[in-house]
Amino acid sequence: MTILTALTPVLLVVLCLVIGFMLVKTQEAKTIKSSPGKSQDLGPMTQQDSRDDPETSPGVDEDCDYTDSIEDEEDHPQVPYSQPCYPEDVMLKRSRDFYTLLNQRRTIRFISSKPVPREIIDNIIRTAGTAPSGAHTEPWTFVVVSDAAVKHQIREIVEKEEMINYQQRMGYKWVKDLSKLRTNWIKQYLDDAPYLILIFRQTYGILPNGQKKTHYYSEISISISCGILLAALQNVGLVTVTSTPLNCGLQLRLLLKRPANEKLVMLLPLGYPASDATVPDLKRKPLEDMMVYI
Amino acid sequence: MTILTALTPVLLVVLCLVIGFMLVKTQEAKTIKSSPGKSQDLGPMTQQDSRDDPETSPGVDEDCDYTDSIEDEEDHPQVPYSQPCYPEDVMLKRSRDFYTLLNQRRTIRFISSKPVPREIIDNIIRTAGTAPSGAHTEPWTFVVVSDAAVKHQIREIVEKEEMINYQQRMGYKWVKDLSKLRTNWIKQYLDDAPYLILIFRQTYGILPNGQKKTHYYSEISISISCGILLAALQNVGLVTVTSTPLNCGLQLRLLLKRPANEKLVMLLPLGYPASDATVPDLKRKPLEDMMVYI
Question: Are B64 and B134 in contact (CB under 8 A)?
Fold first, then answer.
């Protein structure tokens, strides 16, 4: 009885501390989500405001390859800029032709094992590397694999995780047609394609003094680079599957001996389309369904 | 005394419930982070594994425009695929020329107000719309603004937030050179450029029956689309700044009357470069610094 009597105030105090801890943690979570800096008075902005903003690494720099950011220790002098300039009728024709070319691009899962000259791949990677990036950090590593044994190891890792994905992790609504699902995790193209490109994102860089270098907007930068890479592929008549392998990032990083600051983002098998390649009969949205003009 | 005695077991029970609730919430947070489905046995995977994986909306579908996913209620028949095929020497030349073209692309903050024919912009948007997307959801809305008053309103919103950003939200290391910073939040090009393109991401779609439609990998899809858009711009000799405006997503969404499921991702002013345009004297990484060959 006496013990019970003594326990009550103790339990009350413990309970208050636990509730207080929960409230603090909830508040921290909200704070981290809605602002990049230390203390933030967002004014009249509501929770919805922060949900409307890009969910990217918060960066000072809103321009992707904004280069004279104060983050750079040395100034970069400004130099005049010039590039090819076309008459309007030439611009119009070029814009039509480029659209025609890119509109033929499709995701192709049937890739020929016919070799592709290495120099073409080099030029495609160089082209991808011209993408803008946060504070010109160029946070990409393109791992190009042509070794058959390594390709096969990659295939095994990816297929195993995909199978687990479908069987264990997907919600019930996905387990409707097992035969159809089985096809989904077989990735023959990972063996067939003459090259696999694995795009790694450098989550941070290393400065000459050994300190970490922030890589702003690295996720956006990597994907923009991938878009340019796809255009470069289409330009030479090669095909790919733009895939983001789930749950095998670490295994692939270790297999390819990439450092801990690199995260696998995309896996693209490259090659000529197989002669019997097929695609789903899909249509793209017309302009009026994706553009609003003001 | 009697009340205190009676309270002890009650407080004990309440305390256990609160602690149990906290544990459940913590477990849910870990679960959501590491896998898309319901219950997940990740096997020997460690916390680092999940950090190695793409931080994108978890989707069943790892291929960006994987279209015959079980998510699609109707089957899409397979049709033969064909596209232009070039001899190797032509491929090589095309790859070199495309790299030369894209390597000239820079972020340009000095944009001429010279008008650009509307049809060219339409073709550029169509081209961006050829990007792959998760389960072929095409989760993009391109808002193209040429109205001078609306452009000015956009400029005011963006500049105000940028100024607050620099003054309040940046860490101390950013407040080194105020005069330099002041330049950073003045966006003259938002008034000068004949067009502003605001790319909105549809976080989810709406099915004919009114239900929500999941948009897998929408963040990656939008950025890939942006990469293709940048290539299309460079192809016709137009320039832009690839910017991701911070903290003004809601204001801009409301200004442009976009629905709640759309989030602003990027803002690109388009036009010819100004005759006196300059760029920082930067170099891009050589191939050996961004590519690993296996």
Answer: yes
